[in-house]
Amino acid sequence: MGFFKEHYIKFVLYMAVIVLVNIVGLTLFFRADLTASKIFSLSDASQKAVATLSEPLSIKVFFSNNLPAPHNNTQRYLKDLLDEYAARAGRLFNYQFYNVSSAEGDLSANAVENRELAQSYGISPIQIRMMENDELKFTNAYMGLVLIHGDLIEKINAVTSADGLEYQLTTAIQKLNNKVSALLRLNDKIQATLYLSSSLNDIAPLIGLDNLPGLEQTVKKTIDGINAKSLDLLSFDRQDITDKQALNDIGKKYDLLALSWPDIQDQNIPAGQGAAGLVLTYQDQAASLPLITAVDLPIIGTTYQMADPDTLEQDIMGIIEKMIGINQDIGFLADHGTPALVPDRRTMMQGGSGGDMQVFNDLLSHRYNIRQIALKDQTIPDGLNCLIITKPTEPFSDYELFQIDQALMKGTNIAFFGDAFNEIAPRGSMGMPQYFPIDTGLEKLLAHYGITMTPAFVMDKTAYKHQPREGGEQIIYFAPMLKEDTINNTPAFMRNIKGIIAMQASPLSLVSDNLTSAGVTATRLLSTSKESWLMKDEINLNPMFISPPESSEEMDSYDLAYLLEGTFTSYFKDKPVPEKPMGEEDISESDTPADAGETTDPAATDAVESDTAAPEGDTPEVVAQNRILETSRPAKIFVLGCSQMLMDNMLDPEGRTTNATFILNTIDHLNGKDEIAAMRSKQQMLNPLADTTAFVRTMIKALNIAGLPVLVFVFGIGVWGTGKIRRKKIAKQFNA
Questions:
Q1: 3-state DSSP call for residue 256?
Q2: CB distance 559 to 527 below 8 Å
Q3: What's the domain range around 93?
Q4: How many domains does the chain have?
Q5: Do residue 204 and residue 146 come from a single domain?
Q6: pLDDT value for 469
Q7: What is the mean pLDDT of the chain?
């Protein structure tokens, strides 16, 4: 009796322990993600996004219940993902699932109210397919959510798959939270110091800057406007420096434009010097915004322009946002023959494509505000993290190259997607396209920085295979299939990218001497297989007329993409500042032809245009210093010899293919968003099988067919033999 009682007590105690362990597990749980890319764990970017919330963030989920597979798994994954966010976020993060489903065919009052709430946020049901009683049916289901952060709202109308869901949620949270959170986290104010020498007022009328005396008031008004919108984050100060040595020190430290002039006896103006610029400093960071610029024009000579008051606030905010890490602006070169980001309706009406980069534009617009820059009429704004240059075909003037060079010197990273040839389509339906080498002048700039592009197309035996309707298979040799062994996965933003398709790519080579002298490092990102060759001179991309070389000695591997990073030396070091080409705007603002060397103010960007020019022969010999930044801040240049990879036929609208992941990750890396790039990469599911020889494949098949049964048989014999030996030992021990 005592024996049964003891076992009964143990059984009760064991059951109690099991119940208590389960209760503890509801609040204190542990999960182990054994996947290689940690698919089921929150990325660092996601944890940071919710951990830095400064105001309550609410997520309202409208998801129909009892959906068929795979949508029920998506709902479960979404619930688990939101639980992960909540565990990392704390009290400022909350979410709620709203009942929008019918019960036994009827909608409850609560479900009707929730559906109306979903409609008010712009969440509508979508049609899905489902199998019921061996029949394919269609039904409407709610599968959306909305994020609310203060007065801002962001919605995801259709959560149809778990793939990329974390990326969608995290980027939406960042979009809502980044700016306000970053401003609230500032420990100190950003110091805005206006260096404006009063001595400049004496010569301002002589160089066409009549409104210079009102510059301080203009800057102060702009600063006050920014403070009113941005939690009073700026502290303003004005410094009047006229001492020559002090001006030299400040000019070199902050790259300020400094002016000097001799005695001007006719105007009773003594020799002097002065500077005008706005310097923003925060902790160990500093950035300058020139308030006076000097431009050399043919015939007219040197002209001086003041900062445009209408764009001053935007320029200052661009620098601030870059400084505190919330800059979302990205530059895109929109002239010099580059492809258009948005469809050209006029071209489409005439039967043309109207713009082949719509997908790229849509994908990039989800993360960045794209500022299109027409370099012939505009300057590159200060504060840009990255400038994208895609297949320019028209020549750059030296002044335009100077702008690109100086943007790099200021720390603006450059992404160059270039082609070696410009393709000219034949007139009519007959004939073959013609290919002309592209020479814009940008090539000499890149060569100076350490990289060149060979005027050729790379062909590769490991290429995309097309299956025509007639049957068979056709290898498109000018569309190399880049596999894991030719993709550099060492950089964080390149991880888990195991397959890319290129198209009409040109090979790159390094200028080692330039890299060594500048102290710049080069990282190869993409290359072709060792069975590649070049098509030069006579270009014909008709697959029917392309065949590999007979000898393997004529083939080699070619590099397609590089990342250069470090401190670059200006191409214009020890060279005069190039003159700005005369445009229609410059000509129209000059009422009469000016003599060579005459200084006027033709800029439309002055606060108020000056109707009077300096009298002929009275122009002072003003010397502008510190006009060229000779050494860059730490910067990066990405070069890909294949602009086709940005076209609509190479990218998917959802941005989930490896091609899209590579392009978007590269842009994120150039904008300091490596955490976002890592999160996007972990969603990649492409794991191609390694190439093997016919012998290896035969051996693997033989092992699967005959080897495994043999191993089972051997294992069984071993178990039988071990048991027999054990029985003999037992019999011997008991003399049985």
A1: coil
A2: yes
A3: 31-185
A4: 4
A5: no
A6: 66
A7: 82
Whether 596 contacts 415, CB under 8 Å: no
State whether 179 and 195 are in the same domain.
Answer: no
Other C-beta atoms lying within 10 Å of the C-beta of residue 56: 12
Residue 333 in tokens: 């070169």
For residues 229 and 268, state if they share a domain. Answer: yes
Model confidence at 344, in pLDDT bands (50, 70, 90)? low
User: Which backbone phi and psi does 436 adopt, to 5 degrees?
Assistant: -115, 135
Quote the tokens at residue 276. 């005008």
**Cis amide linkage into residue 70, ω under 30° from 0:** yes
Mean pLDDT within 212-225:
91
**Comparing C-alpha atoms, which of 318, 312, 316, 339 is closest to residue 330?**
318
pTM metric for this prediction: 0.71
Question: Is residue 359 assigned to a domain?
Answer: no
Q: CA 18, 20, 26: angle at the middle one, nearest 5?
A: 105
CA distances from 727 to 383, 714, 717, 718, 721 (A): 83, 20, 15, 14, 10
The dihedral formed by the CA atoms of 708, 712, 714 and 720, expressed in degrees to the nearest 10: 180
What CA–CA distance (Å, rounded) separates 643 from 453?
A: 13
Question: With 60 as the cut, is the pLDDT of residue 520 above it?
Answer: yes
Smallest Cα–Cα separation from 500: which of 276, 660, 668?
660
Give the separation between CA 285 and CA 321, rounded to whole angstroms.
Answer: 12
Helical axes 71-89 vs 44-51, angle rounded to 10°? 60
pLDDT class of 174 with cuts at 50, 70, 90: confident
Residue 330, strand partner residues: 370
> What amino acid occupies position 726?
R
313: its two tokens: 């606030």
